Structure formats: structure tokens, C-alpha cells
């Protein structure tokens, strides 16, 4: 299926949507984002239910949805998508798990520790790989394989294994005692053994001693979650008739791109945090548009700030993305003779007050350079998007609207 010449861009502000504070403000409402606000004024603006009823509001489910892949049909778990990105070879009977490096409190018995930091202070990839290599040689893996990813995000692979583990994402339990969230179900005993042993091995590792000296959180334990088998997505080109590219710092999103047969573009210095190389991502997106019809630009920073409960930095992350990504990409698109459509939205909300994801509908805009119209929206935020009365029932329906 070939489409007529047109360019399509999705700028995905991960976790951007939020709940209003006591003054009725949100980071999205207060952020100075002139490019996004100007687009909303002449675009279809409304709310989209990206997370299907009954499914957890993870970035895996939500981004699959936004990219046009119904999670009810395609979702097999989070970790397998990340495993694809870092080159892990999975057979149909293999099971993979996300293996976070986390910071747990240091005074209690393991079962009573507190999840102090789900990202171990956004540990560097270099430090993390040293720790993962160290653990690979010493943990009671019993045939399991440990693979290094990016920053705190890594992978554990079980060959020819059963599923059914009950595991909790660490970013869902920030500042909580881990007692009620330890592994249950399939492999629970082995997983808890691995996690407890990792604490013994890591608490006084030289990498962590140096991090403490610098006032940084140590990566003193692994945390397992995100169980799943090898995914199988329909090829994006065959599905939509468009050559597509994905730009992200996050293995999960890269894995979706790989599974969908899209070009996956790495950007040096792209971290998935507020310190990411936004300028490099914008340049990569513009270059990708020269040879692709569809570009999906994923920005993780607002989500990370939401998980950390940091309102000010979440607002700043939104402003940086608007200025450094939306502005330059929009300027490039407008300079070309090819018509285009650009969409802006979060995959899900990550309210600062909750420090985790929620399933609420998210604000979105779709601007069509050939068919602009007055939406009545001057500020692109949760409240104004809801006021339009426009509601899109799923991420799949959103993608259909974008590509219509």
C-alpha cells in the first residue's frame, strides 16, 4: 500500500500529562511552549484513551497503542521489546525480564527495605555495565543470562521457561517498603534469591563506593519485572504504506521500532532524562524525514521527572522539548514543499503527586498543513484538550486519524 507524498511526525512527550495542583496548574499548563500552543490553535485537539481498559498504563502498552498496534493483540510483555533493542536473541519459549539497577535503603533486612530510587540516581551506562558484568559472574543465575542495557535498564533471559511471575515495576513503588511487592508466582523463589544476593554483592562494590563519595545514590540491588515472550508486530511499511523511523534513548521504544521493521536511529548523548541531547534528536529527526515518510520522536524526560515527583523539572522538560524538538522540526517541515501532519501527545500521564503512570485519557493534537482550522485552543494542556469535546477512543484510532 503506497500513500501519496506527505510527511508524518509524532512528537511523544512521555508522561507529560498530569493532575492539577491546588491552584489548578499542571506542568503542561504552566510550561512556556509556544510552538506546541500555536499548533494546537489550528489543529484537531482533544483527548485520547491510549491505554485500553483492563491493561496497565505502562509505556510499553501506551506506545504500542499510539504507534497503531492494538496492545490487546500485540502485547507480550515489556522486557522482550527491550531485549530486541540490545540484541538479545529470543526463542519462542524463552522469557525475558527487565532488570533494573535500583537503590534500596540500607538499614533494614532485605524484605523490609524501601525503594529509594528506581533508577539508582540515573546511573551511567558505563558504571552499570561494570556492575552487570560483575553480577553475571557471581549471581545464582542457574542458566539464566544477564544482559547490559542503558543506564539502569537491563535484561534477564530465561531459556525455555514458563511464565506467571507476579512482579511490580520499581517506579510504581517509589519511597515505599518493598515487602508487599517482592516476587510471587512462577520463579518467585529464584528471583528473590537473585535480588537478595545482588544486594550483598553490590552494596560495597567500588563503583558504589565512588558514587557515595560523589553524593550519588548507589546501585545496590537488581529488581526484576516486565515478564514476556518474544513479540511479533506487523511490519510498519506493509501495515501503513510508509517508510518509518524511530528516535528514542529508551530500549523499549527502540525495540518496538525493530519489531515493526522501522529504521531505529541512535543519537549520541540521548539519555532519556532532562539532560538528554535534544538538539541531536532534532537533527536526527530532520535527517530522518529526508528519507522516511513517518518519524516517531520519543522523549522520556517528562516521565522521568514525574516518577521523581519533580514538578519544576517536568515543566522544564516540556519547555526544552518544545523549544529544541518541536520548533526546529516544525521549521524544517514548513520550509519544504511537501505537505505534512504533525501530532503531539504523551503516551500516558505520570502525575507528579503519584510518581507513577495512570490510565486517564491524554491530551493530543494533530495538525494538518493542508487543512488547518481554528480549534479555539490557545494553550495545549489537559483542561483545554478536554474542553473541545473531541475524544479518540484508542491509540489505534489516533494513528488512523493521523494517517487518514
Give a structural overview:
- With 404 residues, this protein is of the alpha/beta class.
- It folds into 2 domains: 240 residues, 3-Layer(aba) Sandwich (Alkaline Phosphatase, subunit A); 144 residues, no CATH class.
- Helices cover 35% and strands 19% of the residues.
- Strand 10, helix 10 and strand 11 form a beta-alpha-beta unit.
- The radius of gyration is 21 Å and the shape is globular.
- The two termini are 13 Å apart.
Quick structural overview:
The chain is an alpha/beta fold and 404 residues long. It is built from 15 helices and 15 strands.
List keywords for this structure.
2 domains; 15 strands; Alkaline Phosphatase, subunit A; globular; 404 residues; 35% helix; alpha/beta; 15 helices; 8-stranded mixed sheet; 5-stranded antiparallel sheet
Major sheet? 8 strands, mixed
Structural class: alpha/beta
Number of strands: 15
CATH architecture of the largest domain: 3-Layer(aba) Sandwich
**C-alpha end-to-end distance:** 13 Å
Strand order of the largest sheet: 11-10-12-1-13-14-2-15
What is the CATH topology assignment of the largest domain?
A: Alkaline Phosphatase, subunit A
Helicity, as a percent range: 25-40%
The CATH superfamily label of the largest domain reads Alkaline Phosphatase, subunit A
Number of helices: 15
Strand content: 15-25%
Q: Secondary-structure element sequence?
A: EHHEHHHEEHEEEEHHEHEHEHEHHEEHEH
Amino acid at each position: 500500500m503506497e500513500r501519496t507524498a506527505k510527511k508524518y511526525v509524532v512528537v511523544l512527550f512521555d508522561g507529560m500529562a498530569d493532575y492539577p495542583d491546588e491552584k489548578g496548574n499542571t506542568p503542561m499548563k504552566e510550561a512556556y511552549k509556544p510552538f506546541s500552543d500555536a499548533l494546537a490553535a489550528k489543529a484537531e485537539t482533544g483527548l485520547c484513551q491510549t491505554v485500553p481498559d483492563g491493561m496497565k498504563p505502562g509505556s510499553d502498552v501506551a506506545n504500542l497503542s499510539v504507534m497503531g498496534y492494538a496492545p490487546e493483540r500485540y502485547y507480550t510483555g515489556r522486557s522482550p521489546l527491550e531485549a530486541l533493542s540490545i540484541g538479545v536473541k529470543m526463542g519462542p519459549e524463552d522469557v525475558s525480564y527487565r532488570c533494573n539497577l535500583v537503590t534500596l535503603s540500607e538499614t533494614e533486612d532485605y524484605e523490609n527495605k524501601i525503594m529509594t530510587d528506581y533508577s539508582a540516581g540515573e546511573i551511567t551506562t558505563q558504571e552499570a555495565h561494570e556492575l552487570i558484568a560483575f553480577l553475571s559472574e557471581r549471581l545464582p543465575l542457574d542458566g539464566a543470562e544477564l544482559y547490559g542495557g542503558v543506564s539502569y535498564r537491563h535484561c534477564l533471559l530465561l531459556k525455555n521457561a514458563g511464565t506467571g511471575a507476579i512482579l511490580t515495576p520499581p517506579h510504581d513503588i517509589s519511597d515505599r517498603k518493598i515487602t508487599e511487592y517482592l516476587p510471587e508466582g512462577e520463579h518467585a523463589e529464584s528471583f528473590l534469591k537473585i535480588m537478595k544476593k545482588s544486594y550483598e554483592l553490590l552494596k560495597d562494590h567500588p563503583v558504589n563506593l565512588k558514587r557515595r563519595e560523589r553524593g550519588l545514590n548507589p546501585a545496590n540491588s537488581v529488581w526484576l519485572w516486565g515478564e514476556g515472550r518474544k513479540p511479533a508486530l506487523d511490519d510498519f511499511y506493509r501495515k501503513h504504506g510508509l517508510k518509518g523511523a524511530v528516535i528514542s534513548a529508551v530500549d523499549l521504544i527502540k525495540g518496538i521500532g525493530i519489531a515493526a521493521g522501522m529504521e531505529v536511529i541512535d543519537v549520541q548523548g540521548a539519555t532519556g532524562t532532562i539532560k538528554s541531547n535534544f538538539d541531536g534528536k532534532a537533527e536526527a529527526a530532520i535527517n530522518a524525514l529526508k528519507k522516511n515518510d513517518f518519524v516517531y520522536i520519543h522523549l522520556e524526560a517528562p516521565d522521568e521527572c514525574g516518577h521523581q515527583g519533580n514538578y519544576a523539572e517536568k515543566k522544564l522538560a516540556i519547555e526544552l522539548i518544545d523549544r529544541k524538538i518541536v520548533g526546529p522540526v516544525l521549521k524544517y517541515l514548513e520550509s519544504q514543499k511537501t505537505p505534512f501532519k504533525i501530532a503531539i501527545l504523551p503516551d500516558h500521564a505520570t502525575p507528579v503527586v503519584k510518581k507513577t503512570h495512570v490510565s486517564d485519557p491524554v491530551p493530543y493534537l494533530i495538525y494538518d498543513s493542508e487543512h488547518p482550522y481554528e480549534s479555539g485552543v490557545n494553550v495545549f494542556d489537559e483542561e483545554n484538550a478536554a474542553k473541545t469535546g473531541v475524544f479518540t477512543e484508542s491509540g489505534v484510532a489516533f494513528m488512523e486519524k493521523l494517517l487518514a
